[in-house]
Write a structure and sequence with these properties.
By secondary structure, the protein is an alpha+beta fold. 30% of the residues lie in helices and 29% in strands. Strand 21 (357-364) and strand 22 form a beta hairpin. 31% of the residues are buried.
Length: 844
């Protein structure tokens, strides 16, 4: 422990901060409140000292649990740790807990799953007695600098966090011998610049910082917080010049390496094939293992040592491949890349720690090839193998080092799927064959997957995946695999049978089958809201095609409307074809960049939502053959069409009859009040004509008002729009009785407007039953109340005319017009009341 950790006071260059008194209001409802964050760094040409102090309020038991152990991580190959203070403030009293014997030290390897070992250690201290209401206060310094980075520095100051901070202190103390270059993002506060001996000081003090809420899935390169960068270099060329020295060709080539290059030269004559052979040798014989301790995180090991050990990290295998290519006469240089930021690394200020991977750029006949020696054995010749998707990189070429485009691919697709469904060979089951073709790194991954897990295991996984779509699916025969070592293609062809594949709708007499472009759906982003404050990260690169091909009957027809999304970030296409009894829908999706921007985000998301809602193919066909399509197998839609046609014909003919019969009562119309008629005839014809007779009755009343009361009105429109006009007619009938000195029922005046409202509401309800699918069928029976609602109005009119029974009898006779209505509407009534009886039977 004492070799790495000691207790000391802060050095004189540290400006120890004071703690504000009282509660931190912005954090009272949070688990912890950050009273103080102090980040102070001393930058020397050959050393770096990082002073840190944290003061936290323990507001809840959750805060105590999450912050009850203090940890500090460091690299023991060049760093040591000095603890300056560690204590609790409880009820205004300081409890000193700093005791070196209470510290534990652990080995930390967070990237072991990636075969990377950096040798970091972690100091741990479990704070004794910590409880809610305490204030935890500790400070330490990490002393040391990686020798591979001597001569420069890079630092980044951030001024907002996901939690509120009461007091933030950022301070840089930089030796005057070092250059100071700066770059800002999102308007950070400007530092106070002072001098401290032979040092330049940049000092920030910010208080009461609000918590910042950020969007999910933000690209790694995006600066979403106010940030202030400082660096000892201003040009990427300076970074490249520094690291170029580590990749110079060895002064001598070991006998073992000479044998390898001689053999490759003998076996292959072209530079392309020699380059491909050298890459294959490194990928096949040197396993990836990163020992990143100290300067090993930045400086490659000697190629002879790497060959002897048969393992190495990206720098080691790159240096080995460079050595082989240079001795084969191939022009080759290393290229530094950032696997997270890709081409956006230039957004940051240049610095020695900007990159996390290295490739080889080989130039053959004027064409560049980017080779990644860390990959496993790759499929494809030099023109077709995967060359990465890093967009840009830093070419290491001494003083000529420069940023260049580092993405090259001749792949038409990265994934190309063909799903074939036979819908006609069997009336119940559907045979399903899927051919999955992978290219480039996708082919390499899939080949490795099959070889490591075995095809039987993969088939089981695939079957489980497809069973989510088709629960009755089963494997028809074993899958077939093949690959093309020239075009970097790996193909898996699988055969399935979907038992009882059709979704049967007995009411409609149809069966349906559904298929979806699952691979496109998985690659394409889902709708994630219409507004963002930061770009949305996209899976990149993606270049996928999926075709759904269906064997159908020749006489089928399809709506062949294509759809697409085309912009600077993604490209989506959906096209259709139907030829030789094969219907095909082809989907393609490609990412052009690794993100969707804030500007125009809602428009792109809306387009994505529209096409995703339209994903897939729903194919529907009748469940019976043409010879079996008797009336008893007609669908509800067919019966509905027949019903509407009959209604239309009856309405037209009834209207014609009305024109010729509208004045049959002209000779005695002035002897009655309005249009009395017997209750029996009114109810019989109302039910027979599905309510249409009532329109005629309303018309006759409005006609009487026009001719007898001499009012300028249009009776026909008022009858047609009875739902609205009855608010006028029903109360008017009461007024007419009074005007004519006729005594009616006393209760009618109170019921006139409520009856009009009920009539209107019943009409609305009837329309809703017809149009809203979620309303159950039995609810349609309630709408028949509409036929009896005008009965109190009829009774009032008849009451006015009770002294004229012979005229009421005339109106109540079954004339030729009446019998015509009966003939016209009888088939319609038969259909309607048969349907009602079926509904009632199903209910009970």
């Amino acid at each position: 422990m004492s070799d790495y950790v000691k207790i000391s006071k802060p050095e004189s260059w540290v400006d120890v901060d004071t703690i504000e008194e009282g509660n931190f209001v912005l954090a009272e409802d949070l688990q912890i409140g950050y009273q103080l964050l102090s980040y102070q760094t001393k930058v020397l040409p050959k050393n770096r000292i990082r002073y840190r102090r944290f003061v936290k309020d323990m507001n809840t038991q959750g805060g105590v649990e999450d912050n009850g152990t203090i940890t500090v991580t460091f690299d023991p190959s060049y760093q040591t740790v000095d603890f300056h203070s560690l204590g609790l403030i409880r009820n205004g009293e300081l409890i000193d807990l700093l005791d070196l014997e209470e510290f534990e030290i652990y080995r930390v390897e967070t990237d072991r799953d990636k075969l990377l070992y950096n040798g970091d250690l972690q100091i741990g201290f479990a704070v004794p007695g910590l409880q809610v209401g305490d204030q935890l206060d500790y400070s330490y310094s990490i002393n040391g600098m990686n020798s591979a980075l001597v001569g420069s520095y890079y630092d980044r100051q951030v001024f907002e966090y996901s939690v509120p901070v009461r007091k933030l202190r950022n301070r840089l103390v930089i030796a005057r011998a070092l250059d100071v270059h700066t770059k800002t993002h999102n308007n950070p506060p400007e530092p106070v610049e002072t001098k401290f001996g032979d040092f330049k000081v940049l000092d920030w003090l910010v208080t009461d910082i609000q918590a910042q809420s950020i969007d999910d899935d933000v690209p790694d390169w995006f600066y979403f917080r106010p940030t202030f960068e400082t660096s000892g270099v201003s040009e990427w060329q300076q970074v490249g010049s520094h690291f170029s020295q580590y990749y110079l060709p060895p002064k001598r080539l070991s006998p073992e390496l000479q044998v390898i290059t001689n053999q490759i030269s003998k076996d292959f004559k072209s530079q392309k094939k020699r380059t491909r052979a050298a890459l294959e040798f490194v990928q096949s014989n040197i396993r990836y293992l990163g020992i990143e301790l100290g300067e090993g995180g930045f400086i490659p090991r000697d190629p002879e040592l790497v060959l002897e050990r048969r393992f190495g990290d990206c720098k080691d295998v790159t240096y080995l491949l460079l050595t082989l290519l240079n001795n084969l006469g191939v022009e080759a240089r290393p290229v530094l890349v950032n696997t997270d930021s890709r081409g956006k690394f230039e957004e940051a200020l240049p610095g020695f720690t900007a990159f996390d991977h290295v490739l080889v750029r080989a130039v053959i006949e004027g064409e560049s090839y980017f080779l990644d020696a860390t990959r496993g054995e790759q499929l494809g010749d030099l023109d077709h193998l995967e060359q990465g998707s890093f967009q840009k990189g830093l070419l290491l070429d001494g003083s000529q080092s420069r940023v260049l485009e580092a993405e090259k691919s001749k792949l038409v697709w990265r994934k190309d799927f063909l799903d074939e469904y036979d819908l006609v060979s069997d009336p119940n089951d559907v045979s399903f064959t899927t051919t999955a073709s992978y290219f480039g790194q996708n082919a390499d991954w899939m080949k490795d997957y099959v070889e490591s897990d075995g095809m039987a295991s993969i088939e089981k996984n695939y079957l489980g995946y497809f069973a989510d779509f088709y629960p009755t699916i089963e494997i028809l025969k074993p899958s077939e695999t093949s690959y093309d070592n020239q075009t970097s293609k790996y193909e898996i062809k699988s055969f399935y049978l979907i038992k009882n594949a059709w979704d049967i709708d007995e009411d409609k007499g149809t069966k349906s089958f559904w298929a979806i472009p699952y691979e496109i759906s998985g690659d394409m982003p889902e709708f994630s809201g219409a507004k963002r404050t930061a770009p949305l990260s996209l899976a990149y690169p993606r270049n996928t095609r999926q075709r759904l091909r269906f064997k159908v009957e020749d006489d089928w027809s399809f709506d062949l409307e294509p759809s697409s999304i085309e912009n600077d970030f993604i490209d989506y296409q959906r096209v259709h074809s139907f030829e030789n009894a094969l219907y095909e829908e082809s989907y393609s999706y490609k990412t052009k960049q690794d993100h969707l921007p804030v500007s125009g985000f809602s428009e792109i998301m809306n387009e994505i939502e529209i096409v995703r809602d339209d994903f897939g193919v729903l194919l529907t066909m009748p469940t019976v053959s043409d010879s079996d399509k008797g009336w008893e197998n007609w669908s509800e839609e067919t019966w509905g069409i027949i019903y509407l046609a009959l209604i239309l014909i009856a309405g037209v003919l009834a209207s014609i009859g009305l024109i010729f019969n509208r004045n049959y009562d002209l000779d005695w119309r002035d002897q009655v009040v309005l249009h009395p008629v017997s209750v029996k005839k009114f109810l019989f014809l109302s039910f027979l004509t599905i309510g249409h007779y009532q329109i005629y009755w309303f018309y006759k009343n409005w006609q009487w008002i026009k001719t007898i009361m001499k009012e300028e009105i249009w009776p026909i429109p008022r009858a047609i729009f009875a739902g609205f006009m009855n608010f006028s007619l029903f109360p008017r009938i009461d007024d007419i009785g009074a005007e004519k000195g006729k005594k009616g029922y006393g209760w009618y005046a109170l019921l006139a407007l409520p009856l009009a409202f009920l009539y209107f509401f019943s009409g609305v309800y009837d329309r809703a039953v017809e149009r809203v699918d979620t309303i159950p069928e039995w609810a349609s029976i309630i709408s028949f109340i509409l036929f009896v609602l005008p009965l109190p109005v009829l009774l009032q009119v008849n009451k006015y005319n009770e002294d004229k029974p012979e005229l009421i009898a005339r109106h109540s006779r079954f004339s030729i017009f009446t019998w015509g209505l009966i003939v016209l509407y009888a088939p319609i009534a038969l259909l309607v009341y048969f349907g009602v009886s079926v509904i009632i039977f199903e209910l009970f």
